[in-house]
Amino acid sequence: VQLQASGGGLVQAGGSQRLSCVASGDIFSINVMGWYRRAPGKQRELVAKITSGGRTNYADSVKGRFTISRDNAKNTMYLQMNSLKPEDTAVYYCNAESWNGRLFWGQGTQVTVSS
After folding, report:
1. DSSP code of residue 109
2. How far, in Å, CA of 111 to CA of 19, rounded?
3. Residue among 7, 78, 87, 6 at smallest CA distance from 39
4. Cα–Cα distance between 114 and 11 in angstroms, integer?
5. What is the pLDDT of residues 58-83, one digit of tens each?
6. What is the pLDDT of residue 114?
7. Could you tell me which of 17, 19, 16, 23 has the C-alpha nearest to residue 6?
8. Are 8 and 97 in contact, with CB atoms under 8 Å apart?
9. What are the average pLDDT values for consecutive 10-residue runs of the chain, which has 115 residues?
10. Which residues neighbour 115 within 8 Å (Cβ) at sequence distance 6 or greater?
11. CB neighbours of 113 closer than 8 A, spacing ≥ 6?
12. Residue among 98, 88, 28, 93 nearest 63 (CA)
């Protein structure tokens, strides 16, 4: 499985940004997909994840502001980020987990929120 993330950039606080992650390869092996982020000086953390059946899970810090979605027909996962805060600044990574537990990572995309 290969993952290609896009959509990062510079945005002002309070603004919105949408990230996309396109999966290719053995896409039928994918169960869960998710977004993680790593802020400067911090460990990588889960932002949100979505199962093949559409169940979602969010970090408390983004609940009510971020929405994860998945278009299986397009092999694409999205992260709609609203009401962005400077503390959301990080490199965002898309992730996929196969049905047998194997993990795949895309390259990161930088999101910078200016105050």
Report:
1. E
2. 9
3. 87
4. 6
5. 999 999 999 999 998 999 999 999 99
6. 97
7. 19
8. no
9. 96 98 94 97 97 96 98 95 98 97 95 97
10. 13, 86
11. 11, 12, 13, 15, 84, 85, 86, 87, 88, 89
12. 88
Cα separation, 72 vs 61, whole angstroms: 27
Written as one letter, the residue type at 114 is S
- Residue in this structure with the two tokens 């959509």, named with its chain if needed: 7
DSSP state of 63: T
d(C-alpha 8, C-alpha 37), whole Å: 12
Q: How far apart are CA 10 and CA 21, in angstroms?
A: 18
3-state secondary structure of 99: coil
The structure tokens listed for 41 are: 């000086």
